[in-house]
Design a protein that fits this description.
Helix content is about 70%, strand content about 0%. It is mainly alpha-helical.
């Protein structure tokens, strides 16, 4: 029953999605928001459960070529660990420094580590993207993102 890697991964994803859904139902509704903050987490949780079930019932044998793709070099593992550290740092600093600054720093650092070198394009895209997301949430949806050290 659990002889393929896909089935083992699907069970892990299912358990994580169930835990994620449990905590998404703990989010208290807002009186001021047009769309409550729990809509997205609940939607993602249910989507994860559906995808894990689809992955579990998929009956596809893995070829040797696909198995070879799974092996990572030490450099790739180091890169993945660095990205995980960036994500953890992003989560820890989001409330303290604020969404705008932390998101721009996170996107810039992650892109730089992944090999993008055009600083001007990166900064224009990241600043624009971050500001659009920030003001969309604050003004259109009525959900406030952490402002941190910024006065607005």
């Amino acid at each position: 029953m659990l002889n393929s890697l896909n089935r083992k991964v699907s069970i892990v994803i299912f358990l994580i999605a169930t835990l994620y859904l449990f905590y998404s139902y703990q989010i208290e509704p807002s009186r001021f928001a047009k769309i409550d903050a729990d809509v997205m987490p609940k939607g993602l949780g249910f989507l994860l459960i559906v995808l894990s079930v689809l992955l579990f019932i998929e009956n596809k044998e893995e070829t040797e070529q696909e198995k070879a793709k799974r092996s990572l070099t030490k450099e790739e593992v180091g890169l993945l660990l660095l990205i995980v550290l960036f994500v953890i740092g992003y989560i820890l600093l989001l409330e303290i420094i604020g969404f705008i600054i932390v998101t721009i720093l996170f996107l810039t650092a992650t892109s730089r580590v992944l090999g993008y070198t055009n600083w001007i394009k990166m900064l224009i895209v990241f600043v624009t993207f971050t500001l659009v997301i920030y003001f969309s949430f604050n003004e259109l949806l009525g959900l406030s993102l952490p402002s941190g050290i910024l006065p607005f």
